[in-house]
Design brief:
Elements: H1 5-16, H2 139-142, E1 146-149, H3 167-175, H4 183-193, E2 198-202, H5 208-222, E3 240-243, H6 247-260, E4 268-271, H7 277-285, E5 290-293, H8 295-303, E6 314-318, H9 320-323, H10 329-337, E7 348-353, H11 358-364, E8 372-376, E9 386-392, H12 398-411, E10 420-424, H13 428-440, E11 445-448, H14 454-465, E12 471-474, E13 487-492, H15 499-506, E14 516-522, H16 530-539, H17 546-554, E15 592-594
Parallel strand pairs: 2-7, 2-8, 3-5, 3-6, 4-5, 6-7, 9-14, 10-12, 10-13, 11-12, 13-14
Antiparallel strand pairs: 1-8, 1-15
The structure holds adenosine-5'-triphosphate.
Length: 620
Amino acid sequence: MRTSWADLAANSAAENVGSGSSANNGGIVANSAPTRPAYVPPHLRNRPPSSDPSPAPAPAPAPAYSGPASNTLQGGSRWAAPRNEYRPGYGGGGGRGSGWGNRSGGMDRGREREVNPFGDDDDTEQPFTEQETTGINFDAYEDIPVETSGENVPPPVNTFAEIDLGDALNDNIRRCKYVKPTPVQRHAIPISLSGRDLMACAQTGSGKTAAFCFPIIGGIMRGQPVQRPPRGARTAYPLALILSPTRELSVQIHEEARKFSYKTGVRVVVAYGGAPINQQLRELERGVDILVATPGRLVDLLERARVSLQMIRYLALDEADRMLDMGFEPQIRKIVQQMDMPPPGVRQTMLFSATFPKEIQRLASDFLASYIFLAVGRVGSSTDLIVQRVEFVLESDKRSHLMDLLHAQRANGVQGKQALTLVFVETKKGADSLEHWLCMNGFPATTIHGDRSQQEREYALRSFKSGNTPILVATDVAARGLDIPHVAHVVNFDLPNDIDDYVHRIGRTGRAGKTGLATAFFNENNASLARALADLMQESNQEVPAWLSRFAARSSFGGGRNRRSGGGRFGGRDVRRESSFNRGGSDYYGGGNSISGGYGASSGGYGGSGYGPGVTSAWD
Ligand SMILES: Nc1ncnc2c1ncn2[C@@H]1O[C@H](COP(=O)(O)OP(=O)(O)OP(=O)(O)O)[C@@H](O)[C@H]1O
């Protein structure tokens, strides 16, 4: 028997409230070094002060795949700068392992102290142990069917210990309290470490960020030494590029990547629009191994010749389907195909998302070479950890209905604390107006949308995360990727037109094994979404109201980009399995492998009217 939504909210709140503030420090951590330090490439960092700065190349493990590892840019003589131009300066240390050369060992030079992104001084000597509490409920993921396709797929691992990530990175995994890899990590990390290109689809909140960060950081640590331009050069030459669609998501990925790369000697820099470019330029001048960026700001930096992509070995697109849709595709093509980035097969490319429409998969194959397709759970499915409710609410009743929900939630709150509630609306004006109305009615709320300044956006997010303002009214700018602990309830005050957007929105709760609640207000205006919504809910074992089923039966296949129309429940995975897929021989499909659970034939397809309306102005 189902409990009431208020009970669910209370339960969810109990799980989500009170395990300490997660206030976000936000943005780039300013370094307090009095003088500007020289950039030191990873292979020259962490050497004893008296040692010869000329590096002995790290003995890189023989790669199983001859792609990026044989990159002619690696260790090449493109840059004739004398090696003693580089001076140790960026912190590092702690490495104990063999086979990781001089990248993981060493010490802080005192020239520039690496800020501890964990904000503590813990030591990390304890081994990985199952007993440690991480808050993640792995049982929730055990039954998820996994499918891979492509040639020679490397086998998954069960533990981090099985993966050769190096001591420094392993220490950081412990600091993050990750005891064992999530399913997407179990599969994706060995694939990426073997050098293969990857298109990976896994549910929201299932740990995709680490799945692409670990192989990049590990790869840079053990890669061949790279010679880059001398100190003081104005152009930065990152080895890895991680692109994401929003500023806040780029900031978040940067924060995560800094934790994972702490004391590895790998330097991560973020560049995104709306923030002063000068500070970002200064960070880039100090050197960058991994650049996390939004496309607009990156194009700006490329046009100013402040960043060159010619040494890129790793390209990761987070929210890849969004990055390749109509709104972003031209910018992505410019960055990836029309500047100086090495082509597919030379660089290694990783695409990650919780949703991967087929037309986007087809497009994405332009950026990949002989890739492996990985689906953890059905492509575009929502996690069963989220209890989904859909209620029929007329436009004119939405505010009072929201008020009822919030009152009940407050009454059921834990220790008088309002659980964090994220309310999605369609327009920026609508967001401001609803925020004002909520505040007037005694519910502290803030907003995040594209008309707010970046400072306001970051402030709003911090205030929400810390619980100071427990209601955040947002447009789709907050729909993807944001990992905000303790969000107990997502309300779709206005439903999106696209079911994939709905999947990402509700995915702001029910993350990392925790449960969550999502409530949608539905009325005639959303009829085109009815079928996709009903199918999605059914797939995730949710109660579908009879009235929604009637709407779904009435609605034609034409609206809502109904990805399930014409397909079986588990149909529609790797597009290469479809006979219609033909990229002129530039790629191939090497067979499929369903690891657990069975999938029907790939007969699905979009019955919808083409890809959605493109990008709303909320996006960066
Ligand atoms: N192996 C692990 N053990 C414990 N927690 C983990 C592990 N991997 C990731 N997490 C945590 O799970 C949460 C969700 O991870 P992440 O943000 O990478 O999800 P995601 O799959 O990228 O979600 P989305 O699709 O919404 O972008 C984060 O708080 C992260 O720290």
